[in-house]
Fold each of these.
Amino acid sequence: MTAMDLVTLAQQQPQVPGTSNVRDWILDNIVPLLLLTVALLLLWLGGGKGDNAGVMRRLGGVIVALAIIGLAVTTDAGSNIGKWLAGLFVGG
C-alpha cells in the first residue's frame, strides 16, 4: 500500500455500522416463516379436530398481532407507542 492510498483512505468518510440490513433480512425472511408456522399450527391443531370456531378466534388474534407489527415496522409510531407504554408504568 502506498502513501497515496493511505491519504485517500484517510480522507474518506467513515462507515457507520447500522442495523438496516439486519432489519431488512428479518422482515424478508423471519417474519414470513413465522407467519407460515403459525398458520400451519392453527390448521393442524384446530382444524384437525373440527374446531373451526376456535381456529377463527385464534386467527383474529393473529390479525391483531400482524397489525401491530405492521404499525411498528412501517412507521415511526413504534417508538412513540413504546414511550407511551413505559409512561404507564413510570408515571411520566
Amino acid sequence: MFDAEVLMAPIIVFMVVVAPLWLILHYRSKKQVNQGLSEHEHRQLLELAQKADKMAERVETLEALLDQEAPQWRRKV
C-alpha cells in the first residue's frame, strides 16, 4: 500500500506538468521544421542565384566594354 502511494505523486506530477510541456514543445519544434523551404522552393532559389551570378558577370563585361569605348560614361550617370 505504501509503495503505491509513493509512486502516485511522481506519476501525477509527470502527467499534469511534464507531459503537456513535452507535447507542446515537441509539436512547436515540428512546426518550425516544417516552415522551412520546400524542395521545389530550394531548387528555384538555387536557379535564381545562378541567374544572378550570370547577370553580374554580364554587367561587368558591359562596363568593361563601355570603359573601352566611352571612358566618360560613368561621369554622365
Amino acid sequence: MTEAQRVLVTGATGYIGGRLVPLLLEDGHKVRVLVRSPEKLHDVPWHDDVEIVQGDLTDKDSVGEAMRGMDTLYFLVHSMASGKGFADQEQQIAHLVADAAAESGVQRIVYLGGLHPEGELSPHMRSRTEVGRILLEGKVPAVVYQAGVVIGSGSASFEMIRHLTETLPVMPAPSWVRRKIEPIAIRDVLHYLVRAVDLPAGTNRTFDIGSREVLTYAEIMNGYAEEAGLPQRRVYALPLPAPRLAGLWVALVTPIPRSMSLPLVESLQHDAVSKEHDIDQYVPEPDSGRTGYQEAVKRALGKEMRGEVETTWAGASPSADDASSPLPSDPNWAGQTVYVDSRQRRSSVAPEHVWKVIEGIGGKNGWYSLPMAWAIRGVLDKTVGGAGLTRGRRNPTTLFTGDVVDWWRVELLERGSLLRLRAEMRVPGKAWLELRVDPDGDGSLYRQRAIYFPKGLGGKLYWWLIAPFHTLIFPSMAKNIIKNASKVAQES
C-alpha cells in the first residue's frame, strides 16, 4: 500500500463516488471533493472529514483550483442523464479535466469506463470509450478501468434488472437478452478504485475488471429471480431490432428515466466481457475473493431490506436540474407569478409523531391520498420522459438532504420540523412541496404548502388544469398524515 495521498474526487454525490470517499478516508488519504451543490453532502457521515469545494466541471478555473495540490484525481462523472448531446458534453469535460490536471500538477487520473467489444458501439459506450481515450492521450497518466454491469443496492443496472424481473414473469425480449456480459459487484469495483493509487507511477492504460463469470442477460434476470424467491422467468428472445422501443419500455416499468434507459438499452446490443486480466499483476483480488453474481444480488437485496443503501443511481441530479434553484423566501416572490395551495391542521398529537409520518412519506408508504391518482400521474410523467413514481426512496424511515423521494428530491431538511421537496417530474415551471410541523400548546400544528412557479402561459394553464385535483388530493393528504400520526402515537 502506498503512502497517504491528496485525492480529489469528482462525482461524490453520485452512486460510485459517494461510496468511494469513505473508503479512501479509511485508508488514510486526504480527500477533497468537487461538487456543484455542497448542500447535497450536508448529511453524509463523512462531511466533516473531507474538504468540500464548490465548482463545475465545465468551468476550467474552478476545476484547476480544486485540483491544485492534489496527487490523484478520481474522475467519476458522466452526463448520460442530461439527455441529447451528452456525448459532446462528456468529451468537452474530459478535455478540460485532462488539461487542468496537467497544469495543476496532478500525478494520476482514475476513470471508470465500460467493457465493450471492438467495432461499432452504441452512443453511450462510444462516449465512455472516447472519454477514456482523451484521458489516456493527455499529459497526466491515466488509469482507465473498464467494467461491465455493476451489481449493488441502488445501482442503475441492478434496479433495471430488479424491476424487469419482478414485473414480468414472462418476457418477450429483444435478441440482446442472449448477449454475453460479465457483471461485477459494487464492492469489487470499489476495491479496484481504492487500490488504483498503488499502481506503479506513470501507469497509463486501460484495465478490464469483472467477476470472471460470463452470463447472458436472460441468466442475469433468472439469477435475480432465484435470490429474490421468485419463480424462474420465461424469457423469449425475439428478433426485434428496436432498441429505442425497448428503452421506452424499460423507462415505463423501471425507475430509470427515459434519458438514461435509451442509451443503456442501446448498449445492451453488444457483449461486455473482459478481454484481458492484466490487473491481477498489479492489484490482488479482494480479501474474500471476487464476488459472484448470485452473491452480489444477495448482498444488494439484504442491504435494501435492512435500509442500508448508502447511495443510489438517482443521488446525483442531472445537470439540467441545476436550473431549479432553491425556493426563494416568501418576501422575494414579488414580481414572480406564484400559485400556492396551503393546508393546515391542528392536532393533539405531539410534533415528533407527526414528523415521523412526514419523514416516512413516499416510496412504499405512498402519499396518504388517492393512490390511484398519484399512480396515474406517475405513469403520465414517465411517458413524457419524467421521473415517475417508481424511484422510491433510499431509506424507508429516514431522509437526508439530496435524497430522492419518488419524483421529488429533498431540497431542505430541518429534522423534526420542516421537509421541503423539489419536483423532478416534467412540469412547465418549478414546483415544491413543503411539509412542516410545529408545537401548538400540548399538541401540534401541521402545515402543508404546494408551491408552483409557472413558466409562460403553458405553466399557468397547467396549474388551472390540475387545480380541481388539488382540492381532492391535498386536503386528504393533510388529514391522513395527522391520522397516521395518531396511530404512531398510540403505538409508541
Amino acid sequence: MSTKFIARIALSLALLSGSAVTLSACNTVRGAGQDVSSVGHNVTRGATATQGAIDRHTGVSP
C-alpha cells in the first residue's frame, strides 16, 4: 500500500469519527436547532455589547 492510500484512509476515518461525535452531541434535529439558535443569540449579544462600548467610547449614539 502506498502512503497516499494510507493517508487517504486515515483522513476518511478522522472525518467519519468527527462527524459521529458532532452528530451524537445533538441527539435530535431539535437539539441541533437549539444549538444553532444559541450560537445566534450569543453573537447578537456580543454585537450589542460591542456597539454599546463603541457608543460609550466615542460619545456617539445611534
